[in-house]
Amino acid sequence: MFAVLHIPGFALQSLVRSEPELVAQPMVVRNAEEATVALCNTSASTAGVCPGQSLPQAMARCPGLIVRAPHPTLEREAGAALLAAAFSVCPHVELTAPGTCTMSLSGLVESSHVPALQRAVATLAATGLESSAGLGRTPLCALYAARHAAPRHILHGTPALLATLPLAVAEPSTEHALILKNWGIKTLGQFTALTKADVTHRLGRTGLALWERASGGAPRPLVIKAPARTFSAALDCEHELETIEPLLFIFRRFVDRLALELSNASMSAQALELTLLLGDETTHRHLIRLPEPVRDANILFRALHTYLETLRTDASIAGVHLDLIPQRSQVRQRGLFDGGLRDPHGFADTLARVMALVGSDRVGMPVPADSHRPDAFKLVSPPPTLPLPPAGFAHPLGGLALR
């Protein structure tokens, strides 16, 4: 059994994902080499814009049309999010095409196929990518089902479904499409009702290959993609950033994807290395150490948010780079009498916020200073765990025990 995760309009969604305000506006992605429309959103298609039109024609039909060029960096980041979601389903993942991942589910229990795909689709939706999924006996059947499933839905590529699909999904050549149209063949089921021998006799080997695609193809070995070994994300900003809100939006996308990659690899982050490329061609670097290794996206983002709130740079930000320093996750049961903090990340976050308000030299744990003055003290950083009480700490009994 095979499964496919598919993001329709991948280049368009990768752009809208970084600028959510464009969702309700008519927008197209132009071809990189020609002045024609490659992809358009629902608002643009409602106004009469369709792929293949020239840009002047599209702008004449929709005066407020927004035209964008493909953005390879944003597509690479969206592709990494797609791969992370696919690896959360199973370890056998192939990047079939931009925006499309094929998975082999041979090692999974059949009852877990749909729930795992539902979680992956929900994860992509949380990162700003609308996707659909398909299941099938071959990779091609699963691909057909995923392409024709509604957003956030899973469709099974059964023979009954394939029979109703239009012939265009099998991608016939212009010559074959015209011949089959003259024959009155419009669906895959009508075409596969012909025998392979008749199709080969009349259309040749290319016609036989088209018949194979129309029938769903055969199982094939996947070109397995290796999971992420390093956990990093980078983006060169198209416009320099001067406020914290767009910066936090970018880092939220980064952290959601990196946290999923950490979870797939059974790793946790022990520190975050932040690099900001400034407009004056200087670089600001900072290492954010975490109280304990963690892979929760909310905790990682909270650590970044706390630091960025106190940051002031001499120039606007032209690019960002985030690296997570991984560590093997340690699972242990806490002892009944452990003195550790319940929420060390929340405690560290509170301390950082207090330090930002009153200064780092005024926050800490008071301890006696090495001085002859009885009231002299100094502030030190609180330890991650509370020390055990010394032996003989309990007060001695002062009399007879009462019964």
Describe the structure.
There is one protein chain. This protein has 403 residues and is α+β, with helices and mostly antiparallel strands. The chain has 13 helices and 14 strands. It has helices at residues 10-18, 42-46, 55-61, 72-87, 113-126, 139-148, 159-164, 174-183, 188-192, 196-214, 244-264, 297-309, 344-358, and strands spanning 2-6, 27-30, 37-40, 66-68, 93-97, 100-104, 132-136, 154-156, 231-241, 267-278, 283-294, 317-328, 365-368, 377-380. The protein has a 5-stranded mixed sheet with strand order 5-6-1-7-8, with helices on both faces. A 4-stranded antiparallel sheet has the order 9-12-10-11. α4 (72-87) runs antiparallel to α5 (113-126). It is elongated, with a radius of gyration of 29 Å. The model has no long low-confidence stretch (mean pLDDT 85).
Which runs of at least 5 residues are low in confidence (pLDDT < 50)? none
C-alpha termini separation: 74 Å
What's the overall average pLDDT, rounded? 85
Whole-angstrom Rg: 29 Å
Number of strands: 14
Note the run of SSEs as H and E. Answer: EHEEHHEHEEHEHEHHHHEHEEHEHEE
Strand-residue fraction?
Answer: 15-25%
The major beta sheet can be summarized as: 5 strands, mixed
Secondary structure tally, helices: 13
Strand order of the largest sheet: 5-6-1-7-8
Overall form: elongated
Instruction: Look at the helices and sheets and give the structural class.
Output: alpha+beta
Determine the fraction of residues in helical runs and give it as a percent range.
25-40%
